[in-house]
Amino acid sequence: MRIMLSGACGPIFHSYFNYIKNLNIEVLGVDIRENQFTRNLLGNNFLLSPSAEKEPDLYVNFLINNINKFDLFFPYSDEEILVLSKLSNNSALRKKVIVSSEKSIQICNDKKLFQNFSIENNIPLPADSKVKEKIIKPLVGRGGRNIFRVNDEKMINPFRNSDDWLVCDYIDGDEYSVDSVSDGKGKVIDSIARLRIVTKGVSIESKIHMNNKVIKLAESIISKLSLFGPTNVQIIEEKGTKNLYVIEVNPRLSGGAIFSALGGMDMIKLTLNLLNNKKNDISIKNDGEYYYRYWSNTT
Predict the structure, then answer these.
(1) Region 97-121: what's the mean pLDDT?
(2) Are residues 95 and 137 in the same domain?
(3) Residue 238 falls within a domain, yes or no?
């Protein structure tokens, strides 16, 4: 089995790569940039690709030209999954890509569409109430990029009146990251919940915390969206009230996938078993365990 993962030059790939190769799975890495560390790590198993965001047609052609080099592709970036979700279900490339339907991907990627979907399905989101402190974020964005925490009404109003931004209350509480694998027909195979202790773009410290209420909410969303393969749902549990609010849904491998794997649920292994019609037993999770990610300079 040869799987391909994108974002090969990022720290998320490096930490996950060492885990996956111990499963006797050959790993290819693809990225729109390259560095010497990744070249040394992967050798000929590294592929330099066009940008899915800037050159979608070239990106798809690049994958078609290299289709015989991998058995399955787990795309990581939001731009990639949106492009790949538009492929015909009958195409040879689409059959090798782990991606959900175009409609589901669009709902997850566009915060306004997700807001409408949540209202229709009674999914709790942070409101834009009279609370002074707000979170301002672009309707289409990734991770924590261009997200602001503001308590000045004069600064908030221009964003509130814009078609490109979403304004909502800042919720003070514990942030959970729920990783799941589902079959694309509404059935969730398994899930694991992590408390995000320290983040810097991506999680660098997590604690496995199997909060059943949080997991149940995440799985209900995944089921309603009929997502396929790995999915990550971020939820905040408000201090005091213990009310839950959904922050976002990422229909792909999460940045903390390595934490979930070490914590008792490997999303890639579950997906492979699903595709091969192997029974997936619910695994024992390392509830309460902490996991850390480290980076080091290299030449």
Answers:
(1) 94
(2) no
(3) yes
